[in-house]
Please model this.
Amino acid sequence: MKKWILPACIGFSSILLIMAFGQRNASTIVYQNNVDTLSDEALLDSVERASFRYFWDGAEPRSGMARERIHIDGEYPEHDQDVITVGGSGFGMMAILAGIHRGYITRSQGVQRLQRIVNFLSHADRFHGAWPHWLYPDGRVKPFSPKDDGGDIVETAFLIQGLLSARQFLRDDHPIEKQIKQRIDSLWKSVEWSWYQHGQQVLYWHWSPHYGWAMNFPIHGYNECLITYILAASSPTHPIPASAYHQGWASNGKIVSPSWHYGYELQLYHQGNATLGGPLFWAHYSYLGLNPHGLKDHYADYEKENFDQTMINYLWCVNNPLHYKGYGPHNWGLTASYSIDGYAAHAPGEHTDLGVISPTAAVSSVVYTPAQSLQAMRYWFTHPEMKNKLWGPYGFYDAFSETANWYPKRYLAIDQGPQVVMIENYRSGLLWRLFMSCPEVQKGLKKLGFQYEARNK
Model:
């Protein structure tokens, strides 16, 4: 795997660190000692292991699936502390595979949990094969919004990404593992991807048994949904044609819209007129299993797109044009997360940067910007004042704002999962190897005109 590193940002001297954090006091000395003694590998393992616990210790106990949220402060909207996230559970399954690989749990423990998850999914509500955004622990759909009470093909794609990775991880020579593999294969083949075209050359995000296609949300790029089109094209039973990808996702080539920022290029039009790039989860969710390194199609080089989007996000925070407190090379990362007034898709821009840093943005970008990501992780983990505010039982809390003096003790599955998976991909390439080894995915990529140059980690 090619590691992109910006030479000017590789490390800081002790003097520069002290200048950056103010006068040399006891706190600064402790921080510098930690910086000097904690290896990158130990830091990565600490963050990966803690974030993994969200999906292991923090899982919804009956299903084994991932809770939508965990609030250490105990305050939940609508008493939904047991609501299950479908997409986040896909990330969680990949986290379990990483946990087995790292020895955080035994293989037997992980297989038992995967078996429970697959059994639950086999009986949970589905709509033309697609799961909803949220589920109750008994498997019933919990509406995400008044008319969003049916199938969610994007959340389903995030879940299938995890299921297929697990299928590739499990062994045929073990009876229980083989059985789980077979059930995963059955679930994968039962998703009616082509139904979600609604008779058009595009995929539609939602379908409801009560409201039909009333949500009326065709999926155009560029955003977090690339994996949805790739899996839909890869389906061995209900595939979409390549024309839906080219006409729908790529809008007949209009997705290509080059622009330059801080010396880095965005090749594609980022939805919502995000001129400096969308929130960083766009560079994460589809690429937890789909390896962007060496991945190209008619429209973009996805290794370059993700690296450049991340660097623009980083440099926006370093330049800090809106003058928020604390922003800098050690304190950066804008993505969708909790926000001061609820939830927001934070991104570079006058109206989309709300002064809220989301640790998952920098942490999950370690596969693109290791020097910059490790610098932020090291600051948050080793600086006593920051760690006291940002670190909890499942790793870094979801978001914070120094400007607003806002440090909620809350987690979201969709933000913790990418941290585990991308750290593991950076360390070993495990989840990329598993997902990209799916023969159906390779056929689907070829069908859509992708080129992929596999690289050994």
Summary: The CA atoms of residues 282 and 389 lie 27 Å apart.
